[in-house]
Amino acid sequence: MTVPLLSLRGISKSYGQNRANQAIDLDVAPKSIHAVLGENGAGKSTLMKVIYGVEQPDSGAVIWEGEPLSLASPAQARRKGIGMVFQHFSLFETLTVVENTQLVVPGRKAELADAIGKLGRDFGLEVDPLAHVHTLSVGERQRVEIIRCLLTNPKLLILDEPTSVLPPQSVERLFETLRRLRDGGVSILFISHKLEEIRAICDRATILRGGCVTGHVDPRKHDAHDLARMMIGRDMPEPLPALPISGGEKRLEIIGLDYRPDDPFAMPLSTLSLTVRSGEILGIAGISGNGQSELASLISGEVVLPGEQCERIYMMGKDVSTLNAAARRQLGFAFVPEDRLGRGAVPEMSLTQNSLLTAHPLNLLRYGLVDEPKAMTFTNECIRQYDVRTPGPGVEAGSLSGGNLQKFIVGREIMLSPKLLFIAQPTWGVDIGAASAIRRRLVGLRNEGMAILIISEELEELFELCDFIQVLHHGVLSPALVTRDTRPEDIGRYMIGAHSSQEKASA
Ligand SMILES: Nc1ncnc2c1ncn2[C@@H]1O[C@H](COP(=O)(O)OP(=O)(O)OP(=O)(O)O)[C@@H](O)[C@H]1O
């Protein structure tokens, strides 16, 4: 048998009482694409951090090309030929793309900018090398991370949910890249919750549940249902059928919104209109960077329109164009931003304190002071209802696994019982069991009359959830398409701007 590129033997790692990895064995063969799958909090990211030298195991051995290896830092791992793209980005916001690259890859700026441009063109990872990272969307930031890693020529490339923010067109291109890299001798450790992707690209898969390995399989020999069962230990629930559209009252209306951001890298929005009624789900499709974050901050109230631009955004029938986020929330609006660490939650604060950020109007304050028992009860209820895997409400939000934090934020906002719920990327990084639970919940709320607006890059998700879909491209919104009469290819054409304005007018 060929010597594995990487072997793990009995790796264990705990955070306090939390046993994130328990006696993990795993072999990554040369020239293979190896999936690691498991529910949120199963221990995948922790294991990858051990391999990349971010965390040191409490016990067990890492063997690299047949030799024992002890890694004190990621820099050491990179020197050995191990590269990693994280689920949470590690870019400096105030630096440009090329400056961020220079921190990891030696070279002159101009050469690196050329190399970034070339990789972008070859692999569909286009990004402006001179753009400042704070101006980039989440999707673009991930592209930078992937490019930066590829520039270090790794022998083992660890990708933590690399496709979660890529537009569908780029996923297949990324896969071609990964296959090419594998054929050229690079092994890839691939973490994903998308079982069909794992079946399409991986030749081995290791399944984790509760910090332990529950199986090593060839994913091509199992269907997605089988893999899901191994991962979550039970069958998946069926999606909830949507009731017929109610034609209810308008809860969100945007009329001819024009917006020119101060930031020269941000996307201007032009004559944008949409309506979401009670008992409806409207989805905004599109590749990130086409105005999604600008639109989201205008709807959430994080950015308020200038005084002369009133009568553009209505919520619950009231002109909110110049109202701030708090005033909009008072009308019954709730919002889950795509950036869960930073804007959705404060990582250094406990879950209970994070509950208070938006849920304080639910009588969680008394005489201006926090009503601790009530705040804790609310948080415990959110943890229970949304199956957030965590030791309790007192832990810091930043210590939760990515998917569990997402479940917590979505749960917190839904528990406000808003009249209008706006969610960006509802199931980003959430495992398939929890994602289907969140989708069922959203359809249930819609059936009960909530108005829901979703921004998602996942077409499948939009098709499963939405009554109507509009596509955002270059700051322009397509007409509302009735989902059941629309094919993914139609949406795809709008996504790349292949519809003329003539067609749009008559579509
Ligand atoms: N820095 C930390 N401090 C405390 N607990 C942690 C820390 N990092 C991870 N954990 C805990 O370890 C467990 C495994 O988390 P990990 O992030 O490895 O899961 P995961 O499988 O990658 O999940 P996801 O799919 O949601 O990203 C979780 O219970 C998590 O809360």
TrEMBL record:
What keywords tag this UniProt record?
Answer: ATP-binding, Nucleotide-binding
**Domain (ABC transporter) ranges:** 6-235, 252-499
- Write down the InterPro entries for this protein, in alphabetical order: AAA+_ATPase, ABC_carbohydrate_import_ATPase, ABC_transporter-like_ATP-bd, ABC_transporter-like_CS, P-loop_NTPase
Q: Which PROSITE patterns match?
A: ABC_TRANSPORTER_1 (PS00211), ABC_TRANSPORTER_2 (PS50893)
Task: Give the Gene Ontology MF terms in alphabetical order.
Answer: ATP binding; ATP hydrolysis activity
Q: Does the keyword Nucleotide-binding apply?
A: yes
Question: Could you say which protein family the record assigns here?
Answer: Belongs to the ABC transporter superfamily.
Q: What is the name listed in the Swiss-Prot or TrEMBL entry for this protein?
A: Nucleoside ABC transporter ATP-binding protein
Tell me which species this is from: Rhizobium azibense
